[in-house]
Each structure stands twice: as C-alpha cells, then as structure tokens.
Amino acid sequence: MEEEEAELRNPFPSPPSHYNNYTSHNLKLLALLKERVGDQDADLGIVDQHESLSDQTDVPTWSLAQLEKPRVDWILEEGHYSVFGDMWFVKETIPSLAELGGHQLYPPDPSTDRRPALLAVLRSMLVTYSNLTDAIVEPPPPPSSSAQLEWQRQLEWITILAQNLMAAANDLRPVQARGNLELMMQRQLELRREETRNIHSKCDALEARLLELRSSAHEIAGSDQKSTAKPSGSQVQTSTINVSLEDMLRWAEEVP
Predict the structure, then answer these.
(1) CA–CA separation, 200 and 213 (whole Å)
(2) Helix, coil or strand: residue 87
(3) Longest dimension (CA), the chain
C-alpha cells in the first residue's frame, strides 16, 4: 500500500495497477450485468455478479462495478476529485485559512476591509514576540510540573498569527496578478508606441533623403543637357572655320 501511494505521488507515475482489469471481456461482462440487473441506478457493488453471470466464463472475483466510469454528478456535487493521489477542485478557488483547518483572525468576506484586523494581527505578533523573549530567559519549571511552558504557548500563538498574515497575502495573489498584467500590457503598449515613433522618424528621414537625391538627379540631368548642347554648337563653328581655311588654301594655290 505504501509503495502504491509513493508511486501515485511520483512526478511521472505509472498507470494504476487496476488498468489491467479493463479488458474487452470484462467490459462485456459489465454491460451484460447492467442489462440483467435492469435498474440503471442500482448499486452494482452490492449485486451478486457471480449469480447473475453464472452462465458466463472467467467472471472476476473482484467487483465489476470498479470498471464503471466516474460519476460526474457526484464530482460536481462534492466539488473536488482525486488524480494520482492529489485532490483537485472542480472550480479553482483559493481555500481560506478556516477551510484549511486554521484559526482565521480576519474577516472571511473579501469585500470587507481587512486592514484593521491585519494591523491588529501585526501588533499582536510584536507583543507576542516580546513576551517570547521574556519567557525564554525565565528559569525552567520543576521536572514534576505538567503545565505547558510559557514560551511554547507564545510560540504557538506566533505561528497562528504568521499563518493569518500568509493566508491574507495569498488571498491578494489574484489582485497582484491582475496588477502585474496591467503593468505588463502598459509597458508593451509604450514599447509599441515608441517603436512606431521610431519607424515614422526613420520614414521621414528616408523621404527627406529621397527628395535630396531627386533634386540632385534633376540638377545633374540639367547640367548634362547643357553640356550636350554646347559641343554641337562648337562643332558647327569648327566645321565652318575648316571650310573657310580650305577655301583660303585653295585660293592661295591658285594665286601665281
């Protein structure tokens, strides 16, 4: 039994040993037993399955009712179920200190202002700690005394006070998680806005650079057109001058 409990609490437990009972033959016997009993709400655990299935072979010695699926309505009614040795609640709630068997000193209603009660708990803890230091330096009682020691009583009360402070802090976990989520979302929103501003500034810089390049291209194109037009005029003038020189040389040769 201890080995089975240790196996159930293993982080990676093996399947329960009774999974071998879920054979096709046993499931058929269970369906046949339900059919012969007739009453769907009847408790199969108290039915004599050997008498009802006397004409069948290989009827197990253990109750076939173990093969029944868990009753969901029972789980919902109880509010919790057990898996691998751990209890899980159907509706995830944080149990209060009183529900866990502790001595709760603050109001159980979360809508009630708990600050006065928690301040009283804190003051009581300081006073109890002072009493504990006084009780420690007191001489011990005689061996024949059966009364509870003073320092033990103060220590038990400090434990109760500390449990109340920790339980009250745990009750604020959902509020803390909600606040952390809001801060995280605000930070992400600020980062996205900053990234958007950086993208817009980069786009503005690129647009300004493109305008500069466009104006530079227009200036270069205009200068190229001017330089192209000037050589054509010089060529015309040069050709005219060359013709004139040829005419002059021809005229000079003709002259005796």
Answers:
(1) 20
(2) strand
(3) 167
Predicted local distance difference test score (pLDDT) of residue 83 = 75
Q: 167 near 104, Cβ under 8 Å? A: yes
Percent of the chain with pLDDT over 70: 79
240 vs 255, more confident? 255
Contact 87, 79 (CB under 8 A): no
Burial of 150 (0-12, 13-18, 19+ CB in 10 A): middle
What pLDDT sits at residue 198? 94
**Contact between residue 64 and residue 40 where contact means Cβ atoms under 8 Å apart:** no
Query: Would you call 248 helix, strand, or coil by DSSP?
Result: helix
In the block, residue with structure tokens 């006073």: 127
CA distance 81 to 95: 15
Q: What is the DSSP string of 154-219?
A: HHHHHHHHHHHHHHHHHHTHHHHHHHHHHHHHHHHHHHHHHHHHHHHHHHHHHHHHHHHHHHHHHH
Q: What is the DSSP letter of 144?
A: T
Q: What CA–CA distance (Å, rounded) separates 133 from 135?
A: 5
| Neighbouring C-beta atoms of residue 14, cutoff 10 Å | 9
Helix 150-171, helix 115-136: angle, nearest 10: 150
The amino acid at residue 176 is Q
pLDDT tens per residue, range 69-105: 877 888 888 888 877 667 788 887 777 888 888 899 9
Contacts of 120 (CB under 8 A, 6+ apart): 105
Element (H, E) at 83: strand 80-83
